[in-house]
Each structure stands twice: as structure tokens, then as C-alpha cells.
Amino acid sequence: MSGLASRHALLLVSALVFALNFNTGVAAQRGYVPVLQDGPGIWQGPFGVVFPPVPGSALPMWQDPSRPLIAGRTWHIADLSNPNLKQWAKDFMKKEIEEIDRGKIQLTPSSSCLPTGVPNFLGDGGPFLIVQAPDKVVIMDEAGPVVRHIYLNVPHSRNPKPSWMGESVGWYEGDTLVIDTIGMNTKTPADRFGTPHTEKLHVVERWRVVEQGLTLRVDVTVDDPDTFYQPWKTYQVYRRSNRPLEVEVCAENNLQFDYHMPVAEKPDF
Where are the domains of the chain? Predict the structure, then answer.
């Protein structure tokens, strides 16, 4: 390498180190709030994904290897040999699988136009629009009636009433928004496989913008001592899109995939 090239390489490395140190210092400043939504665009990921495993963690539910998933042709059938799932949940899912084999449609909350619950909310892929205010963060999902309210720097209620999306509180840790959710009812599954859970479900998410603002990564820890033997970890990744949110019409409790809107036989006026 020539002397000029060496000096250029040294300057480039020095600039990179300075930038990394500068950004780390900014993120560590007291009161620093990372911007999770920049511009009119949205965050979008693939629809209907299976939660990936994380090395060193108990496994999330996975597709039965004897019944591979083929898009548009087969259903999400869980591998019930997962050692982390307690027996009552396996029995529940086994009954559901048997009904699917007899012709039942495997409807998800979003396909039925119902709230998805957490962490299942993350598996639909959005699109998401994030609005940050001093006292809360609002995450809006284009698909279905899902709007999450994360109240900042406050404790959980003493006994939150179970609800579809639970009670979410949050805080910032450097460049990361941490969301802690409890108080979820048992009407939603934990994932695409229809894995049930109890009201003890506790989900912690860490939302962080990476890759020069082009990617939103969410690291997740799921704990329910009455359903899983151990907490398990997973993550989801969303890419930036420049299109705005669109209006999506969906009838609640839809039982087919045609997403029709109900029409009254007679006018009520």
C-alpha cells in the first residue's frame, strides 16, 4: 500500500471510530430519546412469519417437520414435541390440529379482524407507524384494529384487568425502547401456531433502529410459567418503506378469507 493510500485508510478508520464514539456518547446522555419513526414512511416485515429461535434460549414453537409449510397450501402445524411446552397446552393444540385435519380453517386473530395480542402482534409484519410523545409511544398497525399504547416511565397497575393487548409500559435505554407488557387475556394465541397462554403471560420487547436507520429490530423475551417451562427469546426485523398507511376494511369475527363487510337487509333509519 502506498503512503498516500495508507494515510487515507488511517483517516477513514479514525473518522469511523470518532463517529461510533460520538453516537455512543449521544445515546448514553441523560434524557436522550431515540427517534423510531423518521419521516412519513412505515416499518414493514413479512406477513405471518414464524418466530425464529435465539441461540442459548428455549425454543419457540416451530413447524412440525413431518408436515412442512407450503405457502397457500398447508397450515401452520406446530411441532408438539417441543420440550418447553407444558402438557395442557400440547393437549389443547393437539385438539385444534385434529379439527384442522377435519377441515376447520386455521384463522388467525388478524384474519378474523380481531386484536392479535402480544407477542403475536409482531408476527403479522405490520405495516407499523410509530408516534412518540413525551408520556407515551403509540404503535399503529395497518392490518386490523390494533393500536398499542405504551405509557412511559410509569409502573404497571397493581392488578391490571386482562385485555386483548394487555397493559404496556416502557422506558428508553440508550438507543432502545423497552416495552414491558402484562395483563393479557387468554383470547389470543402467542404465535402463528395458535399456541395458548395464561393470564401470567409476560412479554418484554426491545425496539431499536439499526443499519443507518433502514431497519427496525425488535428483540423479544416471552415468559408464562404456566405454559412454558422456561422463558424463550426471539426477534423480528422490519424494513423501512416510504408509503403511508392505507385504510384496510375488515369485518370483526370474519370466519372466511373474503373479508366482506356485513350489509344490513333493511335500513335502520
Answer: 1-32, 42-241
